[in-house]
Amino acid sequence: MTGVPRALARAFPDEVEYHRDDPTVITTPTERILVPTPIRAVVRILKEIDPEPTFNVVDLGCGDGRFVIAAAYLYGCTGVGVDIRPDVLKVARNKAEELGVGDRVEFIEEDVRNVNPEDLNPDVVYMYLMPSLLAEIRDDLLKADALVISNLFPVPGLRADREIRLDEFRKAYVYDLRG
Ligand SMILES: C[S@@+](CC[C@H](N)C(=O)[O-])C[C@H]1O[C@@H](n2cnc3c(N)ncnc32)[C@H](O)[C@@H]1O
Known about the structure:
Blueprint: H1 6-11, E1 16-17, H2 29-32, E2 33-34, H3 39-49, E3 56-60, H4 66-75, E4 78-83, H5 86-98, E5 105-109, E6 124-127, H6 131-142, E7 147-151, E8 162-165, E9 171-176
Parallel strand pairs: 3-4, 3-6, 4-5, 6-7
Antiparallel strand pairs: 1-2, 7-9, 8-9
Helix pairs in contact: 3-4
This protein binds S-adenosylmethionine (SAM).
């Protein structure tokens, strides 16, 4: 995998299915599957934005934490991941420890609709969320005073300052909402 450090590629495979700890809990297949940003796309986006080590990177709907963990691992950033699912947050905390950045990132179990991004002091906000949810949190994003990146789906009602092409089909939308 070109450009992706081996430790990150090993920690974050492209296809992941996280099972709840308790096998007796009955879930639908979609509840057990996480669709992450491919780690090569994470590395590519980070390279494009080139964060300072002083940056605090927030992922709203962080899944296994790969974006904030990679920012900490590659650029020395601090990070906060928010997700509604305790099972993926447990994976995220374990991965952060495994990669030696557990002291620089934290993970919060919460619905992003109940979080004011501004309170997390972000320099960068990353999201890979459905358009309906992006629309719901848009007004709070505008107050965050941060570089906002949305993978795959543009934020409804906002004009992107630039786009990062990730492959033939995918791009990330970048909104500079600083100052
Ligand atoms: C497509 S995955 C992306 C995960 C990660 N950001 C990445 O790019 O690899 C979306 C994540 O958002 C979380 N999510 C969906 N709706 C949410 C909500 N209302 N509040 C918090 N997290 C949510 C899901 O649990 C899932 O982990």
